[in-house]
């Protein structure tokens, strides 16, 4: 199977090349030429498999230059008991008779990004060997909170790699910032950027398109790649957990094979819900893909109107991983829905760069409206949902998950659609202790990591070990730059 740029489908790469490169030279996103289809009995076959086995089954269909035995070894390392605190890896929890929660935060950094970023380092290391690459890869990451720590942990001390994470100074939670700035490893770096996530993300994309920087790094024995979801090696492992959730519901007798489900996904950069769309393209019976946004509701507006407009006020919310106005992975969806029309996608992206807005064709709108629904939830309502879930269900959730539960409720009331639904839970509530404590009625808050103990004492729920262990960790990084000087930080780190 080959991978093509969304802006030039004549640019074809092998899977190993796509994973190593991360981003196409023209700024497009590398995407499969075709999407493999699950066989008629595939879901039944996977029903009784472990999560690791399901990962190999799905990823093997996309990575024809990786052997099944290679992928099996990677899956065992990525999703083993030393990484995830539950055997199921991505368990599905029943909330009520018609609503289920897919918990994606049982990994080493307590966020859904672990599901991909525990796998990506194995894929990338193998890809470098397959490509006979002698240079060291420098991985640049822009994060709105969770990707940064997950990438740092995944690539920590991985041979032939260096990783530098950029995050918006005032756009992540205190726990997220502490997780990153205390990261151990000899090949890691962390730097805050003045501004919001879009400033950090656009800055990283600019670095990738800087020929002078490429030449300087090549002279020093480095080349650039990405661990953001612009890298296909990030999106592919995310497809797995949607397939796995459906198989779990079948195995547990909650649905029968072929029964439709809806999925509701809190998302900012569109990668998580895109993976759900790809799972549906493969044959998983997902009826409606429900996109949940916070006050930065650029995706909600787009999915309701077909007009993308980032020219709006940016909000720092209780759900910082969704505080994004430029949703990179939407480009991949546009490419597929347009019938692989790279010229059309190129035009939309040019308009976005020039004016901050574009409107898709009527044909594309029709496909969008058929597959997707969307809604958003503000901070006040987010807190209400966290509080209600705790009081009524004794289920503790983080703000991003709360947004998804509220948007699902909105969708059901608007449409009357009673299809069983899976809500995607993207982070441990202990990553957002202050917001969660406030939402469940605690106003006198502890300071720093004391919030973790306070949430445990209040709820009786033990904090995940990786977060509990943050207490007393040494701050290693206090680097800070403007977006104009991100290039200097890259060069300084690689001196």
Description:
This protein is an alpha/beta fold. The chain has a domain at 91-108 and 233-431: Rossmann fold (3-Layer(aba) Sandwich), CATH 3.40.50.1100. The protein contains 22 helices and 16 strands. It has helices at 15-21, 42-46, 51-60, 68-78, 114-117, 120-130, 146-155, 174-181, 197-208, 211-219, 232-251, 271-282, 298-305, 330-337, 342-355, 362-371, 379-393, 399-415, 433-439, 450-459, 465-468, 486-493, and strands at 3-5, 8-13, 30-32, 92-96, 99-103, 136-142, 161-168, 188-193, 222-226, 261-266, 286-293, 307-309, 357-359, 372-376, 421-425, 479-481. Helix 1 crosses helix 6 (120-130) and helix 17 (379-393) crosses helix 18 (399-415).
Entry summary:
With 495 residues, the chain is an alpha/beta fold.
Distinctive features:
five-stranded parallel sheet, 495 residues, Rossmann fold, 16 strands, 22 helices, globular, alpha/beta
The unreliable regions are none
Taking all Cα atoms into account, the compactness measure Rg is 21 Å
Roughly what is the average pLDDT, rounded to an integer? 96
Amino-to-carboxy terminus distance: 38 Å
DSSP strand content: 15-25%
Number of contiguous helices: 22
Structural class by helix and strand composition: alpha/beta
Strand order of the largest sheet: 4-5-15-10-11-14
Helix content: 40-55%
Shape assignment = globular
Task: Please tell me the CATH architecture of the domain at 91-108 and 233-431 by its name.
Answer: 3-Layer(aba) Sandwich
**How many extended strands?**
16
Q: Which CATH top level class of the domain at 91-108 and 233-431 fits? A: Alpha Beta
According to CATH, what is the topology of the domain at 91-108 and 233-431? Rossmann fold
- Biggest β-sheet description: 6 strands, mixed
């Amino acid at each position: 199977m080959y991978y093509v740029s969304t802006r030039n489908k004549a640019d074809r790469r092998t899977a190993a090349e796509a994973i190593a490169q991360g981003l196409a030279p023209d700024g497009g996103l590398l995407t499969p030429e075709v999407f493999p289809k699950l066989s008629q009995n595939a879901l039944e076959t996977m029903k009784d498999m472990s999560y690791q086995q399901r990962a190999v089954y799905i990823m093997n269909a996309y990575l024809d230059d990786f052997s099944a035995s290679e992928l099996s070894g990677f899956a065992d390392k990525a999703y083993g008991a030393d990484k995830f605190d539950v055997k199921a890896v991505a368990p599905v929890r029943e909330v009520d008779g018609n609503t289920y929660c897919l918990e994606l935060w049982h990994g080493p950094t307590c966020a859904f990004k672990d599901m991909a970023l525990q796998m990506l380092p194995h894929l990338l290391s193998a890809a470098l060997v397959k490509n006979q690459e002698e240079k060291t890869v420098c991985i640049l990451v822009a994060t709105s909170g969770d990707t940064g720590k997950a990438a740092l942990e995944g690539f920590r001390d991985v041979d032939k790699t260096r990783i530098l994470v950029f995050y918006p100074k005032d756009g992540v939670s205190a726990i997220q910032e502490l997780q990153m700035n205390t990261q151990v490893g000899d090949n890691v770096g962390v730097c805050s950027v003045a501004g919001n996530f879009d400033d950090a993300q656009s800055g990283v994309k600019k670095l990738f398109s800087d020929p002078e920087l490429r030449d300087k790094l090549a002279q020093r024995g480095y080349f650039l790649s990405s661990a953001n979801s612009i890298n296909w090696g990030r999106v592919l492992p995310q497809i797995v957990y949607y397939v796995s959730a459906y198989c779990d519901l079948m195995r547990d007798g909650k649905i029968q094979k072929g029964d439709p489900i809806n999925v509701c996904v809190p998302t900012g950069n569109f990668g998580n819900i895109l993976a759900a769309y790809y799972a549906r393209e493969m044959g998983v019976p997902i009826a409606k893909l429900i996109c949940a946004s916070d006050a930065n509701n650029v995706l909600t507006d787009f999915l309701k109107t077909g007009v993308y407009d980032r020219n709006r006020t940016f909000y720092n919310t209780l759900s910082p991983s969704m505080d994004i106005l430029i949703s990179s992975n939407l480009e991949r969806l546009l490419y597929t829905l347009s019938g692989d029309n790279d010229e059309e996608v190129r035009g939309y992206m040019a308009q976005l760069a020039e004016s901050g807005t574009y409107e898709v064709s009527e044909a594309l709108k029709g496909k969008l409206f058929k597959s997707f629904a969307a809604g958003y939830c503000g901070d006040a309502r987010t807190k209400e949902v966290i509080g209600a879930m705790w009081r009524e269900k004794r289920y503790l959730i983080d703000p991003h998950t709360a947004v998804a539960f509220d948007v699902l409720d909105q969708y059901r009331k608007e449409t009357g659609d009673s299809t069983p639904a899976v809500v995607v839970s993207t982070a441990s509530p202990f990553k957002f202790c202050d917001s969660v404590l406030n939402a469940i009625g605690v106003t006198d808050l502890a300071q720093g990591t004391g919030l973790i103990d306070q949430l445990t004492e209040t709820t009786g729920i033990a904090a995940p070990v990786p977060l509990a262990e943050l207490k007393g960790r040494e701050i290693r990084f206090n680097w800070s730059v403007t977006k104009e000087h991100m290039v200097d930080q890259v060069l300084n780190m690689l001196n």
